[in-house]
Amino acid sequence: MAIRKITEYPAEVLGQVGKPVTEFDDALAELSADMFETMYEAEGVGLAAPQIGLNMRLFVMDCDGIKLIAANPEIVSTEGEQSGQEGCLSVGKVPAVVVRPMKARLKAQDVKGEWFERDAEGYAARAFMHETDHCNGKLFIDHLPKLRRDMVVKRFKKEKSWK
Ligand code: NI
Q: Which residues are known catalytic residues?
């Protein structure tokens, strides 16, 4: 296992629609293990392949008791609404309030290629949607009004310049 470098905004790969995962082999299992290690090291609850520079539809998460690997993820249904703080390892964890559905059903393939569906609500549902968005080239700041989006980006750049 190895810790990968986290790709940060505004890297191009973060805005690209990921390519489908087609090979469910040892390399995918190793990549997923690296992604978990990278995510834990960064103290995140989810990490998608574009965040380590790979244009692939793949994410890992460990959030609110839900730990999984999702290849070719889709949100197949949602319900309700929640408003809560969200951040992203690719945007320096600068937080912002994002309105999203309260519940979400994820459909994806596991590391062996088996399709599964999983329901979540609250924070874990938020992670399903945030990480699936990454696979579609979308960041959480894309859900914000322009002014708040600009504020998050500004703060991220400022904090980065201190490091
Ligand atoms: Ni993120």
A: 131
Asked if 132 and 50 count as a contact pair (C-beta separation under 8 A), the reply is: no
Q: How far is the CA of 101 from the centre of ligand 1 (A)?
A: 17
For tokens 């290849």, the residue is 71
The whole-model pTM stands at 0.97
Structure tokens at 145: 């009004």
- Distance from the CA of 47 to the center of ligand 1, in angstroms? 6
CA distance linking residue 37 with residue 34, whole number of Å? 5
Distance in angstroms (rounded) separating the CA atoms of residues 1 and 61: 17
Whether 58 and 21 have beta carbons less than 8 Å apart is answered as yes
> 31: part of which helix (H) or strand (E)?
helix 26-41
What size, in residues, is the chain?
163
79-88 pLDDT, tens digit each: 999 999 999 9
CA of 89 to the centre of ligand 1 (A): 6
Q: Token pair for residue 42? A: 């960064």
In a domain, 5, yes or no: no
Residue-number span of the structural domain to which 151 is assigned: 12-162
Instruction: Decide if 6 is inside a domain.
Output: no
